[in-house]
Write a sequence for this structure.
């Protein structure tokens, strides 16, 4: 599942939380315990994939005609995830065949396209949480006595009642994950602002696009740039559009790894300003824009010395864009080649991106305005642009 990243409301002492996989494992263990022991417990302790032992309060534990339904509420801590607070359920029942038989029910996505860790047709319960769910259920099975077994096996169905609605806040459908969310988590815990989780989602999106024979992907830096990209490239499959956020570099290297022929990067001036200097990690806490370099490029494009000095002392990428636009209206300046300058910025970013992938992928950059309109792009028809 690829979630929209939202800013946490807390700035200090950010709290870790638990993955959908950990919650599913806790629900499964509680359900199996009650099925075997008829014991209505209020909490359950599991071992996470990272070997940490954690106790979960149960949201529900009910005997039904089908078996036992248990659930926990997902606590994502201060991780900005749309799944925070939703109910993760497990229905445990008897099975006529030995072993533990795990599947997904309502709100758990089905895999419909190749390129993920799971085969087409399987419930989207990833391998690590799948094993964790199995292990926790097996721990209860092994702790019981043979006379408690009404059948030789167990059936477990993971359910997420809000899963289908929650999935609308993700781009899972583009990856062929239909009908709900994925059950995820390689550690069991989630860290606030988990860069590894987001970068993994970018990498996985490129992998899925490649596996489905898309040889051109579009990396965007946010929802506005993605909307603009889709309008500019309406012929392309929606699966090819990947919100890379601050991880354009991750997307570029994934494109190289999975042999994608072409990548188009669509960005606004703030992110582009960093990539002009070769910084493909563009988070606000990382590298700042090199305004002196932007001023040097302006000088190479015959901007007036006074304007170049203003660019060198600018505060933001938007400030630079406003300065060069204002120069067109100011009679004290000679006419400035604004279009050439913006194209040159795209060219410098494209050169660095090409180096980033060792010249194995064709790179295109498109700079858009804050209303989504196209300002500049590279490559362009004029071969004289970006000779510096």
């Amino acid at each position: 599942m690829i979630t929209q990243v939202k800013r946490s409301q807390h700035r200090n002492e950010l709290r870790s939380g638990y993955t959908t996989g950990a919650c599913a494992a806790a629900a499964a263990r509680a359900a199996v315990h009650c099925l075997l022991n008829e014991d209505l417990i209020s909490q359950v302790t599991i071992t996470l994939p990272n070997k940490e032992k954690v106790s979960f309060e149960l949201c529900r534990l009910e005997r039904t005609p089908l078996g036992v339904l248990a659930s926990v509420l997902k606590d994502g801590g201060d991780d900005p995830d749309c799944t925070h607070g939703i109910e993760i359920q497990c229905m445990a029942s008897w099975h006529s065949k030995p072993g533990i038989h795990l599947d997904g029910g309502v709100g758990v996505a089905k895999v419909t396209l190749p390129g993920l860790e799971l085969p087409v047709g399987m419930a989207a319960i990833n391998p690590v949480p799948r094993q964790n769910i199995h292990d926790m259920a097996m721990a209860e099975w092994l702790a019981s006595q043979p006379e408690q077994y009404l059948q030789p096996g167990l059936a477990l169905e993971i359910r997420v009642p809000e899963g289908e609605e929650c999935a609308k806040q993700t781009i899972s459908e583009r990856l062929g994950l239909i009908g709900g969310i994925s059950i995820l988590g390689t550690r069991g815990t989630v860290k606030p602002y988990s860069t590894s989780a987001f970068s993994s989602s970018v990498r996985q999106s490129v992998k899925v696009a490649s596996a489905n024979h898309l040889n051109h992907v579009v990396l965007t830096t946010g929802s506005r740039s993605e909307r603009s990209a889709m309008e500019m490239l309406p012929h392309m499959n929606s699966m090819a559009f990947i919100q890379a956020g601050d991880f354009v570099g991750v997307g570029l290297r994934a494109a190289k790894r999975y042999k994608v022929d072409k990548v188009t990067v669509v960005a606004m001036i703030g992110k582009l300003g960093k990539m002009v200097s070769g910084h493909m990690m563009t988070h606000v806490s990382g590298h700042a824009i090199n305004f002196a370099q932007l001023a040097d490029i302006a000088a190479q494009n015959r901007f007036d010395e006074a304007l170049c000095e203003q660019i060198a002392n600018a505060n933001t990428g938007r400030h630079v864009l406003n300065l060069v636009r204002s120069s067109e209206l100011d009679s004290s300046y000679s006419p400035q080649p604004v279009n050439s300058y913006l194209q040159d910025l795209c060219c410098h970013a494209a050169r660095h991106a090409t180096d980033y992938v060792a010249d194995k992928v064709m790179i295109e950059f498109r700079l858009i305005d804050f209303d989504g309109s196209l300002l500049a792009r590279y490559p362009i028809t004029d071969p004289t642009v970006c000779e510096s």
The radius of gyration is 26 Å. Confidence is low (pLDDT under 50) at residues 1-12. The CA atoms of residues 79 and 192 lie 4 Å apart. The longest helix spans residues 338-356.
